Fold this protein.
Amino acid sequence: MTSLLVESPGLLTTVQDLGRSGFGARGISPSGAADPVALQLGNLLVGNALGAAALEMTLMGGNFIFSEPAAIALAGSDFGATLNAQALDSWRSYSVAAGEKLPIGTTRSGARCYLCVAGGLLVKPFLGSASTHLVSGLGGFAGRRLRKGDVLRIGMTQTKFVERTLSSTALRILQPRNAVLRVTDGPQCDLFSAETVRSFYDGEFRVTEESNRLGLRLAGLALKSTLQQEMITEGVTLGAIQITPSGQPIVLFVEQQTTGGYPKIANVIGADLFRIGQLRPRDNIHFQRVSFAQARAAWLELQQLLNSGDTLFA
């Protein structure tokens, strides 16, 4: 069985797939890749199913050694990976020989890089998913971030190695949109004055160091609601933007709590959720208001890209 040895794990490296949906009513958030688009495209580059389990590295990579020959792809942010002292490009598949070391450095652009391996990583599923849920310590590899000396099994593959690179069209769609996240109105948008809503869309917010996979805490102009008493706690969605009593927003993310009692002024659209996963502390962002029809059109465009087959590749 081909395996992957973790010689050094980096800052925060976990096993992730596309998460476990449908368990919010039981208090279990989906978890999964913070940038699911990068994960899916990386898997396509090595011939895997879209949701095969891979390594998610945050801000800093690690050193990994393969026991047998393997096919790999790095997707997402550029972490300055090398192989045999040669730089590896993101969004391209490579072959790795048995015993070769793959050093992956620190981020040069966004927040997360994915190491996808042909055959996928094999871990015991929890509620049908291989994703690591760090808050609960469930799923993934022993429910935790990787440590030095961990050995992960790699699935069998009958696919012959084919060198692939993403097309310029695909890369153009994936490019950052000037740190703008598109949003639709939240369920409590009417609890904010027109002036406050304008301030939300006109203002700039900074991602703080307290941000993590539960949510991105933002700092900017304080936003006050007209709510005179505490809200009754209700279910919340991925990408919901809550306004805390301090007036500062929190963007709920992949390991979010499943209920909340703060008013939600807006919600990041599905087609831009992957962009949240590439935001780093001290990044500045703006919000752009779009209609539900525009949000649906953007989602369909993204899904068309992910399902466009060989036209994805140069």
Remarks:
- Residues 180-309 form a domain with the Cyclophilin fold (CATH 2.40.100.10).
- Residues 292-306 form the longest helix (15 residues).
- The two ends are 32 Å apart (CA to CA).
- The chain has a mean pLDDT of 93.
